[in-house]
Amino acid sequence: MSDSAQARARSARVVAAVLGGESLQTALVRNVAKNHAAQVQALCYGTLRWHVRLDALLTLLLDRPLKKRNSLLRALLLVGLHELNEGKTPEHAVVTETVNACQQLRQRHAGGLVNAVLRRFLRERQSLEQALNGQDAVSLAQPAWLHAALVSDWPDDWRSIAEASNAHPPMWLRVNSRLSGVPDYAQRLEQECDIRTSTHPFAQHALCLDRPLPANDLPGFAEGLVSVQDAAAQIAAPLLNAQAGEHVLDACAAPGGKTAHIAELSDCKATVVALDISSDRLIKVSESLARLRLSNVSVIEGDAGTPEQWWDGAPFDRILLDAPCSATGVIRRHPDIRILRRPGDIPVLAGQQLQMLSALWPLLKSGGHLVYATCSVLRAENERPVSAFLHATRGATAERLPALMPGRPAGAGQQILPGETGMDGFYYACLRKGGID
Questions:
Q1: Is 358 exposed, middle or buried (0-12, 13-18, 19+ CB in 10 A)?
Q2: Residue 41 pLDDT > 90, yes or no?
């Protein structure tokens, strides 16, 4: 069995696991050997990114539907169709090695079907693609419910949102302002790695690389000079604007990028509490804080929606609520979101977001500030919970956002759509607590 066929078999296992409800990262960790990691990751990300379209193609190519027990075979066919559609590998090699992968998957009997389906796609590609291009959701690889939501929420932007979500994301870094300047680090990247960078007009510590590089290969990464973080996520800490001597809460803190940025910008002179409900994810927060040499952060396991279980009674000057959401603004980084997320999740998440806002508000000092953030592009999770909260809460007001803030007004906050100035999709609103509780 060739390495190439084994890589396709492993890719099929990962894709089948995701289609069965497992997250892509978990499935990759469980199924991928180091010698196949790069190829398998590329095949899986591409197949899942275009899953809706590929699945529609497969339906047209099959004389009769596959049975549910044939999940591995379906996944292998989807991987093969993606690779043919992408066109980076010679067609004969894709067909041959995908057929060979059947043996690795104990699907030897299916080799003839795989060969027939892939070769039929090559013969009839033009007519098949024409049949799909008349269906916007399928053509753009969007689940029907998400497509409908985007058309409703963003009638002038839904296509650009979908296209940006299908693109390969850029790699953004956040330079640790306590240890290095942005120009100095950009120069070091060019000299040591032959990588050129660009800056962002609003995220002042952000650098975009002209080609990706493994984090551990970044100069000074182990010493805490930089972190990998999208420019849109780097807006949270400057909006929060924690000052020396203040008591600050980062609710829903894992994996810790925003927590670290808050600590960095305060030059470790604010006292920061990093809260998250997941003990496993908090391990990553602690590891990141140690790497970045940030000693002013305490890590607490707890639910932001039930502060009575973990709060010590000391009020906070500032709170960042990076609320659990659909993550529809970061699909380009996590293509499995389109598969794992369901339309019924949205009202549940919106209710949770409003409940967290209400639960955390009493923890904020009079005159204090709360930044509400999500990586969603859906109005149901962004402006509507914030609007409902402001309407129901005495003394809560929306603050004006900075003039250079990217995105567009959306209720009391600002919505950044995927791809705008190279960023992921994010929503931000800044709320102030007046003298009346």
A1: middle
A2: yes
